[in-house]
Amino acid sequence: MDTGTLVLIIVLAVVVIAVVIVAIVIGRRKKAEVNRHRAEELREKAAEEAIGAHQAKAEAAQAEAAALQAEVEANRLRRQAEQHANKAGEAHERVEEHLRHADKLDPNSHPDRSHDADRSRDADRSRDAEGAHGAEGPRDAQRADADRDRSNIAEGERLTRDRSGRDGTPREGDRKL
Q1: Which of 18, 148, 157, 174 makes an SS bond possible with 170, Cβ 3.0 to 4.6 Å?
Q2: Confidence of residue 177 (pLDDT cuts 50, 70, 90)
């Protein structure tokens, strides 16, 4: 081997090493550029998701506020219903008191009438107690209302019958009223 060949081998080795080093540097730069681009995409995606998260959080807060408002309204309506029920109970008690007083005053009063009033009053109280404890569902409450309406109608008819004769004419004692 001669020196020319040896120099040629060394030059070729240096060139190959230089090409390998250049290839490594270019590869790293490309990889860094790809990583930068990918990181930018991830940042954009994170920003979009952050907006979505803020929106979802705002919607959740809005839904919670609506639920609280509905709860407040339900409580107000519940109190109002209780007040109406109390007023209705008081009115019913006054009616019963008037009926008892009328039965005491009327010498032609039927003895079984007071039993009907007691039974009606007991049924109303048991329905009121069930409603207060929440035992009735919506359909049961509707049925109870319908039963109460029928009971009130029957009570009105009974009062009309009691104040008039069988043929619908007023009795002797009622004309003075």
Answers
A1: 174
A2: very low
Q: Concatenate the DSSP letters of all residues of 135-168 into one string.
A: ---HHHHHHHHHHHHHHHHHHHHHHHHHHB-TTS
Whole-number Å distance between alpha carbons of 45 and 37: 12
Identify whether the C-beta of residue 159 lies closer than 8 Å to the C-beta of residue 116: no
Alpha helices, H only, 106-137? 111-132
Pair 171, 165: CB distance under 8 Å: yes
Do 113 and 158 contact (CB within 8 A), yes or no? yes
Contact in structure between 96 and 123 (CB atoms under 8 Å): no
Q: What is the pLDDT of residues 88-113, one digit of tens each?
A: 999 999 999 999 888 888 877 765 55
> First CA to last CA across the chain, in angstroms?
150
150 close to 123: Cβ distance less than 8 angstroms: no
Rounded Cα gap, residues 53 and 57, in angstroms? 6
Whether the predicted model's global pTM rises above the 0.70 cut: no
Q: Tokens 């990889």 sit at which residue? A: 31
Sign of the torsion formed by the C-alpha atoms of 125, 131, 134 and 138: positive
SS3 label, residue 170: strand
